[in-house]
Amino acid sequence: MRPIQMVDLKTQYNAIKTEINEAVLNVLESSAYINGKPVQELCDSLSAYLDVKHVIPCANGTDALQMAMMALDLQPGDEVITPSFTFIATTEVVALLRLTPVFVEVDPKTFCIDPVALEKAITPKTKAIVPVHLYGQAANMEEIMKIASKHNLYVIEDNAQAIGCDYTFSDGTKKKTGTIGTIGTTSFFPSKNLGAYGDAGAIFTNDDLLANKLRMIANHGQSQRYYHDLVGCNSRLDTIQAAILNIKLRKLDEYIAARNKAAAFYNKAFTNIPEITTPYIAPYTNHVFHQYTLVLEGVDRDALNKFLAEKQVPSMIYYPVPGHKQNMFSSFGLPQYELKHTDWLTERVISLPMHTELDEEQLGYIASAVIEFITK
Fold it and tell me: Are residues 196 and 263 in the same domain?
């Protein structure tokens, strides 16, 4: 059996090695390392894949979130509603811009922001909502967009973990996550479903004016070279990463199918284990399984984590400390939050290896190890 990795990027690379090497060498031969032809090709391909009008490439997913908030002219003190149960980047950029993070509860089944809790948190200072499509499935965007429209709020989708995911509206129409709100953002961190071989990110919007503004922000606020109309930053997707992503984008649906096949194996293996709740998939979304995350009940999670490590099975806890308990927000004068679902999940979730290269021998070994610990 091949060694088990949490994310096996090397085996995936070996399967596309010839294409990747050729693409990288072509960039080296062209010497167009910044804004080379593959960057625009990626924007065009992503635009077509996602059915979104504008794709603005950038250096990473955190920059994408920050620039989205900058483009919407959010001002210090404006409130931005976000789930607490997510990676810190979502709320880190809120703090960085001196906006006020407002943490709300998640649905304990989907792990995504709870629209009911969201609406209760709205105040006259609220300006934006940042739903996170956590672990690979969509937040309830139809309800979120209704709330946003009702209260005249912007919606910035954090789509770092769910690129390729489909959201189905009540009338049957479908849209890709990241294309439904005012602005969508994503990360191409190497471990993501569509991952580069370094840092990279992108922003999506159907708004022409916002797209132009975002392009300026990403390039020092320039409308033309050396003419800076607004405060921006320097956040570019380099040509080598774009060339790599062009190849991997063509395989994204294949990769999603492989992840779903692995998830189906896990689901079947854990069917009759009452201590385990396998990932729930809401009726309005599919799942692209960036992570395969279990909820444990009556199980010593830390002991399981250690046991799996001894069995050479990696596992991860995403995320052990929710945003509302992070020290970085101690100076913001935030209220004492009581987010029982969030706190409950942080004590019980554990993620198993999930990537495109898992085979049945590996999956069987992983599942057997989990079951051995729980039933011993």
Answer: no
